[in-house]
Amino acid sequence: MFYERQYTYFESINDTNLRPVHQIFFFLVIVFISCQSPKTEMIGLETVPLTYAKGFEVQKGEGFWILEVNQPWTGADKSYRYLILNEEVEKPEVEVDAVVKLPVDRVILTSTTQIPHLDLLGDTDKLIGFPNFDLISSQKVWGQIESGKMTDLGSGPSANLEMMIDLQPDWVMISTLGEDLRQLDLLGQSGVPALINGEYVEQHPLGRAEWIKFTGILLGKYEEAVRVFEEIEKAYQEAESLIKNQPNLEKPEVLSGVLYEDVWYVPGADSWGAKILQNAGGDYVFSDQDGSGSIQLSYEYVLDHAMEAPIWIGSADYESVEQMGDAEPRYRSFQAFQNGFIYTYTKKKGPKGGLEYFELGYVRPDLVLKDLIKILHPQLLPDYDLYFYRQLDEN
Amino acid sequence: MDQVLTGKNLSLGYEKGQDRKVILSDLNFQLYSGQLTCLLGPNGVGKSTLVKAILGRIRPFEGEIKLLDKSPVDYPREKLSKKLSVVLSEPIIPAQMTVEQLVGLGRTPYLKWSGTLSELDRKYVNEALAATKMDFLRKERLGELSDGQRQKAMIARALAQDGKVVILDEPTSHLDLVNRHEIMFLLQDIAKNQDKAILVVTHDLDIAIETAHQLWLMNCGSPLIAGLPEDLILNAQINELLPKDRFFFDPKRGKVNLRSEDSGLEIQGSEDLVFWLEKALKKRKSTFRTEERIHVLENPFRIQVGDRIYHSIAEFFEESQTSLR
Amino acid sequence: MKTNQNAFFFILAAVALVFLFLINLGLGSVSIPIDTLLSGLFTGEWEKSSHREIILNYRFPKSLVAVMAGIALSLSGLQMQTFFRNPLAGPYVLGISSGGGFGVAILLLAGSFLGFSGMVISSWATAIAGILGAVSVLALVSLVAWRVRDSMTLLIVGIMFGAAVSAIISVLAFFSEAEALKLYTIWSMGSLGGLGWNQVGLLGLLLGIGAFPLLLATRSFNALLLGETYAESMGINPVRLRWLVIISTGILAGSITAFCGPIAFVGIAVPHLARLVWKSADHRILFPGSALLGAGLLLLCDTIGQLPGSAQTLPINAVTSLVGAPVVIALVLKRNFSKEF
Fold it and tell me: Would you tell me which residues 88-117 of chain B have a C-beta closer than 8 angstroms to some C-beta of chain C?
């Protein structure tokens, strides 16, 4: 089923540490089914370079585009090709997994992280369906919902599929862990182009944001997308340089993660979140724990390493410090807790409680970065107000 | 000798919802202490039902049972267990338990919640072990005993429970001949020496006659017949147990005999010898006929027919076969 | 003499328990040398404040929980084995751990239906959900126990209830979001270290309440070794004993499941170990013996599961199964079980 690509306690579920079974399976799949569509060299096909994203490639031809997603999910050994045809152009001879004919008017998204792509490109009105509205925070999309133009696709594993086919969209964008590919086939057979968005696999903050170009091409708005991305890139780099220009800046130790039962779940040092933290001039306490997803650490280890960290960033959705302490009294041993320097990304919520961080965060890493800089080194951004993050109230 | 258990005009059976099935009716009996009583009867006649009623598991439809002064059903469970103990035919026992521990379990109704035995309890255990001559095996594990020894251990347990009445349900059905005798004699001993009323449900007519002071005979459709075994034999009431058309109890020989025709041969000799030759002939349904007299002699044993001499009945039959042709 | 031999083993077991307790306190991801540990405990002075935190607020409660869980599970396992005269019975045959799992599943998995986003799950919440679930299944089983005469029937019904509840949990799991599913899976692997001092105290209280009736019923359990018919003939009330067993096991196994998740094998294997060590079927010996061995075994398993020195840990269920399965196999091979029951 196509489910939310949200962050969770576990940052991102899709890390190499967590699905060894799947990795073995896919390795075997590749050994037995090595039928990759051969790259067809065609005249007039130019490769459009991308700056940060590694998960997809763009090729432009006469009146068409080819998108190749080579990292559709973590540990995938399969790639997907999609053909996007301009209006009135004949389909060229090339093997692809799905064909999209421009212009498109009706699309379905399946992850909140994909929503800002539409908003930023001004195509919110094209959205006709989404699973589980409660997660959405975008005002524009809520406007769409309230005017009755959208169908809730629910959250059960199979209901989605039938309703999607019924709606006959021009395309559906999917994020997957790689275990529900049958659904993809079914959609294809029913004439609905299904496209895999693998932005969560990217670990570079700007790499994830660059996927707006992916969506842009699918909407026929490549140039728009480039413009939007370059703005974001510039903002990010400006913020980054604030830190880079201060080589002697003291970097406070930062703790991140949550405790469940007696095991801590923290972002790995190579993960998206950890990278932005480093860029923001923070010293992540678990910088020696390799991994690009959520990793598990024993209670003792965390206590030993992070008890004295002054700041705690990213601790799940608690209303207040007091509530957090009541839910898990052992948090009280941490200095960051005792001093109340706990920040979490719940400042902005949608009307039904959906966290905007999980929606806008991927495509606006500049805001995340600025938030973190503001928390860690407030003197560098005196006029900036926190966007996603807020400090937990006392009670 | 006291009257420990009495039954008057009992009607017993089972009820399921609205249906009432009467198994026994018009039952009258008395069980005395100091005596070994054997209950005999064909399968299905209702012996277990009677035992259940005595144990207080079922309530009589009509009539009354009194164990000492109360009906068994009216006794609180623990009190009843101090008056009455049982031994069933097939023991289900933990193999690791020692004989001593097993007999100790018999004291359960008297123990505190912790299950520890007091001096008095231990005295009863020792006495029970002595009475069943199991003393020397007291530390042995039950899994390592022979069947006979195990059953004796179970009897010792029932003794240690120190009830006035001990009821045994076919206790010797799985045992060999020697053990069967041993156990029944043991029970007879205990009944006398410890002034207990022992009721044994059994199919073993011979041993019952040998050892019991009282027999209770049950048969379908007739009331319970109680009496001394010897009385019941002499007045032929013992035959109630047998299908009368084919079997009868021979008081002389003290055993069950098949009713069948005489061989029609004239046999001369001492009573015993003639008897056994006749029996062999009857079994074979032999059609051997001769005008001659057959003599059976002893010292040494020989059968003489005319001038022919045979040294065993088997030899005689061989010859008679040939001579028949 | 037998009593001396028994006493010897008891002393040995008690000493081993203390030893294992100290080892469990001393070993973990963070290495805390034994002298710092002891001086900290006795003088109150610690080298690093994180050491103090770790020992007092994490390892100490965890060790106590291990001891309590070991006692609770082995006592309830022993009861079940004697009452049902079945060597494979354990604390969960009446469906209690499934019930606990059901409560927690509703909290964690159905929550994703009802839109708990952000997942603010406190350890009290899972404990309460677990208790409610266990109690519900227990109530159902009791209802059946009331109407049913035969103990074997009760056993089968209990097992079937457990299976039915597990099936419902699978359905909930099927429809839930991946994150919620992971939370549930983690819970079901068991955790001894997730409790604070308040909860430890409550667990201790529940343990006392659950175990107390067993003290009073020792002679009844001994009588039950000969089967219900004989036990009845010796004055034991099997109906009353049945209720005692249901309530005692319900409290003991139910509270452990609610607070720590289901912990496999301990309840089944330890009573057999006790029978092996003390060579006795007498419950005066087996109850305390099982308790001691159970506590020691769980301490040992937890110490192993902490993977001392590494930053990762193993879930307790994995360790008890890995340790418990060979033990049960060895026991079965060594003795002829069918004679035992």
Answer: 88, 91-97, 101, 105-106, 108-109, 111-116
Chain A positions in Cβ-Cβ contact with residue C113 (cut-off 8 Å): 155
Number of domains in chain A: 1
Domain span at residue B202?
3-93+162-227
The two three-digit tokens of residue C83, written as one number: 């009452």
Specify the CATH number for the domain of residue C152.
Answer: 1.10.3470.10
Q: What is the separation, in whole angstroms, between the first and last Cα of chain B?
A: 65
* CA distances from residue A307 to A332, A345, A391, C32 in whole angstroms, order as listed: 10, 22, 19, 16
CA-nearest of A155, A158, A188, A13 to A83 is: A188
In a domain, B168, yes or no: yes
Same domain, B29 and B169: yes
Asked if the Cβ–Cβ distance from C233 to B85 is below 8 Å, we say: yes
Contact criterion met (CB below 8 Å) for C52 and C46: yes
- Burial (CB count within 10 angstroms: exposed 0-12, middle 13-18, buried 19+), residue A90: exposed
Into how many domains does chain B fold? 2
Interface test with C, best of B55, B114, B145 (most C CBs within 10 A): B114
Closest chain B CA to residue C218: B114
The verdict on B20 and B87 lying in the same domain is yes
Q: State the ipTM, two decimals.
A: 0.82
Co-location of B194 and B271 in the same domain: no
Q: Whole-number mean pLDDT of chain A?
A: 83
From the list B267, B268, B250, B251, the residue with the least C-alpha distance to B259 is: B250
Q: Say if A260 is an interface residue toward chain C (CB within 8 Å).
A: yes
Same domain, B177 and B311: no
Residue A10: which pLDDT band, with cuts at 50, 70 and 90? very low
pLDDT value at residue A17: 40
Q: Do B78 and C283 touch (CB under 8 A)?
A: no
User: In angstroms, what separates the C-alpha of C214 from chain B's closest C-alpha?
Assistant: 10
- Mutation choice for C interface testing from A299, A345, A356 by most C CBs within 10 A: A299
Q: What is the pTM of this model?
A: 0.78
On whether residue A303 sits in a domain, the answer given is yes
Domain that holds residue C8: 2-339
Torsional class of A129: left (φ above 0), alpha (ψ -120 to 50), beta (otherwise): beta
Looking at residue B159, its pLDDT comes to 93
Count of domains for chain C: 1
The helix (H) or strand (E) run that includes residue C79 is: helix C60-84
> pLDDT for A38-90, tens place per residue?
444 556 788 999 999 999 999 998 889 999 999 998 888 889 999 999 888 88
> Quick check: B115 and C283 CB within 8 A?
yes
Residues of chain C contacting B138 with CB distance shorter than 8 Å: none
SS (HEC) of A298-335: EHHHHHHHHCCCCEEECCCCCCEHHHHHHHCHHHHHCH
